[in-house]
């Protein structure tokens, strides 16, 4: 059945509350100020409800919060000040909603954020600088959105990024400088309906271990596309749909095993 509403009286005198989870209910809205008396709250999760909007001050005062997950709801907008003051947040998940716009200042206070999952929304553009404050970011999912283009400088300050998924968008090409500063990247997922890749697009991905081309992609690959990944002692995996090929490269020789 599930709850249809969450009442503040249920949490009266619970000032030591550290974890709150009300996943999988039928809640349509969250009362403004519901969390204002929980300065010790560290984990907040309301996955898979029917929430369509959240008050801009809903998370005010949650200075101890490190994990916030509100995926699989019906949220259409997020205020530019939504995450103000959440300086200790390290894990944020707002995927699978109906958000059409992310303000450039949305993550300005999230300097400790390491994981950000915002895919499966209706965003057609991410502004340059939106991820700039998140210099500790290691995991980013911006997949299954509606982006028609993506700027080459979008991730220029996210040098610690290890995992990046940007599958199933609408852009048809990437500038060769897009991955220029992502030398720590180990896992990359990328695909579109039609996608052209430059020969040297992966040149700086010296630590890449896993590369996935998924979905209904019609990807144009040049024979030199993997040259930059062929270095002594390196090992990586790439995937086209369901077919996986693993590479082990020793002394610049590639030995191919098809699984």
From TrEMBL:
InterPro entries: Dev_Immune_Receptor, Leu-rich_rpt, Leu-rich_rpt_typical-subtyp, LRR_5, LRR_dom_sf. Transmembrane segments: none annotated. Keywords: Leucine-rich repeat, Repeat, Signal. Coiled coil: none annotated. SMART domains: LRR_TYP (SM00369). SUPFAM superfamilies: L domain-like. The keyword Transmembrane helix does not apply. It comes from the Eukaryota. PANTHER family: SLIT RELATED LEUCINE-RICH REPEAT NEURONAL PROTEIN, TIR DOMAIN-CONTAINING PROTEIN. This is Uncharacterized protein. It comes from Brachionus calyciflorus.
């Amino acid at each position: 059945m599930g709850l249809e509403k969450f009442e503040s009286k249920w949490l009266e005198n619970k000032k030591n509350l550290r974890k709150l989870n009300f996943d999988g209910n039928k809640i349509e809205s969250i009362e403004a100020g519901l969390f204002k008396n929980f300065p010790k709250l560290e984990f907040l999760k309301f996955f898979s409800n029917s929430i369509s909007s959240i008050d801009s001050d809903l998370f005010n005062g949650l200075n101890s919060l490190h994990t916030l997950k509100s995926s699989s709801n019906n949220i259409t907008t997020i205020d530019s000040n939504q995450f103000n003051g959440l300086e200790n947040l390290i894990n944020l998940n707002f995927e699978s909603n109906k958000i059409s716009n992310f303000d450039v200042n949305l993550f300005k206070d999230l300097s400790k954020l390491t994981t950000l999952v915002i895919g499966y929304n209706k965003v057609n553009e991410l502004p340059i600088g939106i991820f700039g404050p998140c210099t500790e970011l290691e995991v980013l999912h911006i997949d299954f959105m509606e982006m028609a283009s993506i700027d080459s400088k979008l991730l220029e300050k996210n040098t610690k990024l290890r995992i990046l998924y940007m599958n199933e968008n609408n852009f048809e090409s990437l500038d060769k400088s897009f991955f220029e500063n992502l030398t720590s990247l180990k896992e990359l997922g990328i695909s579109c309906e039609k996608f052209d890749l430059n020969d040297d697009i992966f040149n700086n991905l010296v630590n890449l271990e896993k590369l996935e081309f998924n979905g209904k992609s019609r990807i144009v690959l040049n024979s030199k596309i993997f040259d930059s990944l062929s270095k002594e002692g390196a090992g990586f995996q790439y995937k086209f749909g369901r077919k996986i090929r693993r590479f082990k490269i020793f002394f610049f020789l590639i030995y191919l095993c098809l699984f």
